[in-house]
Every structure is written in C-alpha cells, then in structure tokens.
Amino acid sequence: MSGENTRWEKADISYLNYVAYLMRKSLPYDLSLIDLLFVSNFKGGNASIQEEESSINLKLKTYSDIIRKVEECFGNRNLRELSEIELKSLQKFSTEFLALVRKDSLFRIDGFGSSYTSALLHFHFPTLIPILDRRVINGAGINAKINAQKQVIDIERYYPELIEYFHRELRNRPDIDLRTLDKELFVKPIAK
Asked: Whole-prediction pTM value?
C-alpha cells in the first residue's frame, strides 16, 4: 500500500470517529472546542489550537450560524444535484465560512486554518461540500502556487475552483460519491 493510501486509511479512522460523535450530538450544529479537536485530529499535522475555550465558544456561534444557513439552503442534498446558480451560492457560503479564519477576522481561532475549517463544514454536509486539502488540489490538477515545503500558498482562494471541480466530476461520474472522489484525488502522488 502506498504512503498516500496509508495516510488516507489512518485519517479515515479519525473521520469515522467524528461522524459517530456528530450522530450522538443532540444539536450537531452547535459547535464547541470538542468539534475542533476532532477535526484537528482528523486533519493531522502539527497545528495546535492555542486559545482559551471560552473565547473559542464565543467565536463558534458565528460558525454555527453559517452552518445553519447552509442547512436551510441545501439540507442534505448532494453536490451533483445542484444547478449552476445553487453551485455559486454554495461557493459563496463556503468562501464566507473560510473567511472566518483569515488573519484579520475577529472570529479567527488560533491554530485552526482554512483546510481545517473546510473539514468542519464537510463533516456537517458530507455529500455536498469537499474538504480543502493540498493533496486534493494536486489530484484535481488545479494549478496552485506552492512554497518550498510544497504547501499551497493562500489555499482558501482555490476552494471555489475545487468545489466546482467536484461538482463537475460528480455529475459526469454518477457511479461515485464525494468521499470516493476525495480519496481518488488525495492518493495521487504530489506533482513535482
């Protein structure tokens, strides 16, 4: 098994743990530090959330509000079902959600970046919203600017394009779901 497949399989355990937690929550859209820790565990890396829980909980009310808006607009729909107008609306919501973690945002949570935030959104809408990830951007063939450590520079600016890519692929390939497409893109070797 390749390194990419091994990484996927290990992350999938954390993925399923958070899904199980969300299913047990009476109010899944009411976010707390626990939700962030599950996502951070899933995404891995060496980022740590460096903020007091009381501050985080205040900020998370805004995150929860956006998640509720997405629920009101899209429910549990599938990304492939969306019209072009609905797709643009979803891209707007997703971009607005990621903007919460910009350096100049009052809602930024120290140690919780764009990719993590997209994963938080994905977990609440697993058939609708893909996870923003450098490996998935690479697998989708999106021409992103990278730094010397092969990290995508300003990764959040590629999110609308990635959502559009997933929409197009899911429409053209009705035999796969969003999670399967995500894995297919994630395990592709990073372009040199």
From this structure: 0.93
